[in-house]
Every structure is written in C-alpha cells, then in structure tokens.
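My main concern about presentation is that the manuscript never shows what a single data entry looks like. For the editor and my fellow referees, an illustration may be useful. For illustration, here is how one protein appears when written out as sequence plus structure tokens:

***
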Amino acid sequence: MAEHVFISGPASWNRLVYLDHLPEPVPHMQFATEEYETLGGTSAGKALGLVGLGRPVVLHTLLGNDPDGERVRRVLTESGIGLLAPEADATERHVNLMTRAGERVSLYLSTPTSPGASADDELMTAMTDAAALVLDLSVRSRDLLSAARATGVPIWTDLHDYDGESEFHRPFLEAADAVFLNADRLPGDPWDFLEAIVSVGASLAVCTLGARGAIAVSASEQGMRRHEVAAVPVVVRDTNGAGDAFMSAVLDASLAGTDVDAALGAGAAHAASVLTTRHLHPSLDALLGD
C-alpha cells in the first residue's frame, strides 16, 4: 500500500450562494441564481484529491457533535478518508457568496476551538508514519507545528491568498519544505517571492495563477530552477477546490518520484477535473448529487 499523507486543517459544511455579482457594501437586495449545501474546507479538498489519486490519507480535523458535523464525518468516511476528528465545540460552517467568474466572499458562521498544542500518541503516530505532512492554515495546525517538525517528515503548506506580511501565516511559511499560495494578494513579482522562499530553505515554492496556470521555483544541486505549467482548458462548473486538487496531485506525484515539471502537469490536470463539478471533488457527485 502506498504511504499515507497526514493532513491537518479545516473540514466544513458550506452553503454556496451564486450571484450575478458580489454584493456592494451598501443596503440592497439581490436574487441568487443558485444555492446548495456541500462539504467544504481546504483540508477536506486535499484529502479527497489524494484519495481520488489512490493515496491513503489521515485527516485530522475538529468537528462538533451537531448535525453539520455528522454530515461532514459521513461524507469524509464514505469517501475513504481516515479520520482523526476529536469532538470540538462547533463544526466549521460557511456561507460562500460566489460568482461564475470564481469570485468569492466566505462568511464564517462558526469555527471550532483548538484544544491546544498537545498531540496524543495516536496523532503522533499518524504524523511520524506519514510520507508527508500537510499543515493547512488553522489554529489547530499552528498548535501542531512544533510536534510536526519534530517528526522529521516533510511539511507541505498552503498559504492561499497570503499578502506577504500576515503574522498568522508566517510560522507555516517558516516550517514548510514545500509552500503553495496564489497571487491574489501577493505584492510585487511572484517569481521574486518564490525564490525568496526557496533561498531560506524550502525545496519547492508554487504560486497558482488561476486560468493562467501556475509557476514554481525548486531547489536543486545546480541552484534554483524556474518552472511553469499552463492551465488545462475546461468548461468551468465551479472553482471551489481547484487549488486543493492542484496541490494534492503535485504532492502525490512528488511522493511517487516524479520530477517537478511532470508533477505540476499532474496538478493542472487534476485541478481541471475538479472545475467540472460543483463539489470539492467529482467523487462527491455520487454522495451529494450532481
């Protein structure tokens, strides 16, 4: 069996509301063009992507003892994801206001409280025995950074729309061997930022550019190398989860020994498959409805 990947971070139950345009910050009325509920959370998206590629996953996430928590547990378990999900005071829930252009405003209705920095034996074993650790942005993942680094297992992280300054993101950036982010809020030239990340110790830094694909910088014995990959053309149904699918396929391919360019190509292809479904992954169509 392939080595498992350990993921720590959010899994949520979301309501998606599609609008012709995002609301302006003034009192007014708008009509939704579509709305539905589905599984959400960046860590859930990565777990679904990896399992869909045949890679075993242990997902550590916090879920409340409530109906939405039960929905999240059911969908993740039925998708073949191993769960370490201690009971929390709430299940993360969002309302995502979306447009067909991929614009999004996420309204957080509830978030679970992290139990603190300690990691029990089961959690430490799941991390130590993993081929890679994915620590997604969350208070719980931040609390686990020290224990994760002590395992010596490579750490991958996704900084999403990092602005280059946020103090919350910085511990993840400093701990990671592979760093992913998008260019939405990044100041200056993304190439410069990626090279700065690799210069201080990361082996891989990747910036996604939406419909323009992605760029990356890797460390090698000959120095830094630049890489580019084009997006795979596809008719877009929904953009949620595409970045998570991209990272999960790059990670899976890298663990299989693929070179960086081929891994980025695998990421682009996997992201395209997610763009065709309204869920985080096409595998959820059978569980939650197309």
